[in-house]
Specification:
This protein has 420 residues and is α/β, with parallel strands linked by helices. 63% of the residues lie in helices and 8% in strands. It has 18 helices and 6 strands. It has a 6-stranded mixed beta sheet. α7 links the parallel β4 and β5 (159-167). α2 packs parallel to α13 and α11 packs across α17 (371-397). It is elongated and about 90 Å long.
Length: 420
């Protein structure tokens, strides 16, 4: 009944594996991309932990007893707790930048008395919210761990930590920085996911459009029509943008509904209004973000058109385009959760150099009110886009688009012998 199935299966597998475009695009690239992503995440976690261990906490000590001095010494085992000669937390806020501090600890006047009497006492911690990285709350976690160790070893169940957050120089009472970080990350996931879908869809559509014209031999006819060659390129790019945009909107609608089915069951306690806290972009910020996303999309489409010109069929074109996906996926997924400010310098340079990471960095920059970083990113991506668009237009202006091929010497084996 299935006579010859095994022979045919072996033939198909050999042909697919021997195709270097498939071998590189669908096997080698994922084997490289995900370990690199894991390395970036692990390195970022280590860097954040090291930064948290070197963090400076300003101490506003209203207590003159020995127990508060002992508590400050205990905090110094994990962080740099620095008492300063001020009487209020508002005065300490003005000193944050002078000490490059990441938070403030306020010890009440009755601290020593409460510890001696074994009466619970509240110690207030104010943590600076500096970004929207996944490891934003590490310093807060370290402080909580130190308080727990103090309670367990020196004053059982006496200290009660009260966490608050400092956002753009203002104290937000009762909001744990870890909760705020989670809220900001949940809001920030939408853009990277949208960009991933938009770029991958549009690049595949643009590559398929050109490759299908070559495969069906209709590109020759199209190029002989009395119309500008650049108009052909612009038409293909515009069509890809429109179709990919509709697909991205449909995907995001379903994705938001999917995520809402989980978050709707989560209690709303401890939430915060991100708009009132100034943690959402302004109208001008959204404008910059839209421009950044548009020029990035144009560069990705032009790059897909150039790559597809080297393919002879749709399958080869999609395989070639997949080579670009690591440069889209790694920055998008990494910067979705990480704050670029905590990364090593060399890794910052790498992310800044990848044009597809600029919209995500721009979204975080405009949220923080840093329009300069977003503007410089747009200029960089625009220059990159102009170079790619020029290369694509030059390719369409000649007949090379019909004959150019990408060869992998040494990778392509001889053709599979015919079936017996």
């Amino acid at each position: 009944m299935l006579k010859g199935f095994g022979t045919l299966l072996v033939k198909e597998l050999k042909e697919l594996i021997r195709d270097p475009k498939i071998l590189l695009g669908f096997i080698v690239v994922p084997l490289i991309m995900f370990p690199v992503l894991g390395y970036v995440m692990n390195l970022s976690m280590q860097t954040a932990q090291e930064s948290a261990s070197k963090a400076v906490l300003l101490v506003v000590n209203h207590d003159l007893g020995n127990n508060s001095t002992q508590f400050i010494a205990f905090l110094n085992l994990a962080v740099n707790a620095t008492p300063i000669p001020v009487s209020t937390v508002d005065e300490a806020l003005l000193q944050l930048s002078n000490y490059s501090a990441s938070g403030i600890v306020e010890i009440p006047a009755n601290f020593s008395q409460s510890v001696i009497a074994r009466i619970p006492v509240s110690v207030k911690f104010y943590t600076v919210f500096s970004g929207s990285g996944l490891f934003e709350g590490i310093s807060s976690s370290i402080v909580n761990q130190m308080v727990e160790n103090y309670n367990r070893n020196l004053a059982p169940n006496i200290l009660v930590p009260a966490q608050s957050t400092i956002v753009k120089g203002k104290i937000i009472e009762g909001i744990d920085p870890r909760v705020l970080s989670s809220l900001v990350i949940s809001q920030a996931i939408a853009l990277p996911v949208t960009m991933l879908i938009l770029l991958t869809y549009s690049m595949q559509i643009a590559a398929t459009s050109v490759a299908m014209e070559k495969e069906e031999k209709t590109l020759e006819t199209l190029l002989t029509l009395p119309m500008d060659r650049f108009a052909i390129l612009a038409g293909k790019l515009s069509g890809s943008i429109i179709v990919a945009g509709i697909g991205a909107l449909a995907y995001m609608f379903g994705f938001n509904y999917y995520m809402g089915s989980f978050t709707s069951a989560i209690p709303s306690g401890g939430s915060a209004d991100l708009v009132s806290l100034g943690l959402v972009p302004s109208l001008f910020g959204y404008l910059l973000l839209g421009v950044s996303l548009f020029v990035t999309l144009l560069s990705a489409l032009a790059l897909a058109v150039i790559l597809s010109a080297f393919a002879q069929d749709v399958r080869s074109a999609q395989s070639l385009v997949s080579y670009v996906f690591p440069f889209v996926f790694v920055p998008s997924i990494a910067l979705m959760y990480l704050d670029i400010n905590v990364l090593p310098f060399w890794l910052k340079v790498v992310f800044y150099a990848i044009p597809f990471s600029q919209p995500i960095m721009a979204s975080k920059a405009v949220t923080a009110g840093d329009y300069t970083t977003a503007g410089l990113g747009i200029v960089y991506v625009a220059a990159f886009t102009l170079v790619i668009m020029y290369a694509a237009s030059r390719l369409f202006a000649t007949e090379k688009i019909l004959t150019v091929k990408l060869r992998f010497k040494g990778l392509r084996k001889s053709q599979t012998p015919p079936l017996e």
